[in-house]
Amino acid sequence: MIETGTLGLIVLALAIIFGLFLALRSITHFVFNVIIGLLILFVANSIVGLGIGYSWLVILICGIGGSLGAILIIVLHFMGIAF
Predict the structure, then answer these.
(1) Where are the domains of the chain?
(2) Among 24, 28, 27, 83, CA closest to 70
(3) pLDDT in tens, 15-72
C-alpha cells in the first residue's frame, strides 16, 4: 500500500513536470516565432533597406505574431509609425 503522503508527493511531482513541459513548449514556440519574424525583418532590411531597428518591442511583436508580426511591423514602418 502507498501512504497518502507519498501518493500526494507523486501527484505533486507529476503536476510540476507537466507544468514545466507546458511552459517549455510555450517558450519553444515563442522563440521559433521570434526567429522567423526577425529573419523576415532582416531580409526586408537587407533587400529593401527599410532601416527597421531591432528593439524589445519589435522582438516581442515578432514573438507573439511570428511572420504576421514581422509583416505588421513592415506595414507600420511604411505608414510612418516607428518602434
Answers:
(1) 4-78
(2) 83
(3) 999 988 888 888 888 889 899 999 999 999 998 888 888 889 988 888 888 899 999 9
Instruction: For residue 51, report the phi and psi dihedrals to the nearest 5 degrees.
Output: 80, 30
Put residue 45 in one of left, alpha, beta given phi > 0 → left and psi -120 to 50 → alpha: alpha
Cell numbers given for 1 = 500500500
Closest CA to 48 of 82, 15, 13, 77: 77
In the block, residue with C-alpha cell 526586408: 44
Cβ proximity of 36 and 7 under 8 Å: no
Cell of 64: 507573439
CA nearest neighbour of 47 among 82, 69, 68, 74: 74
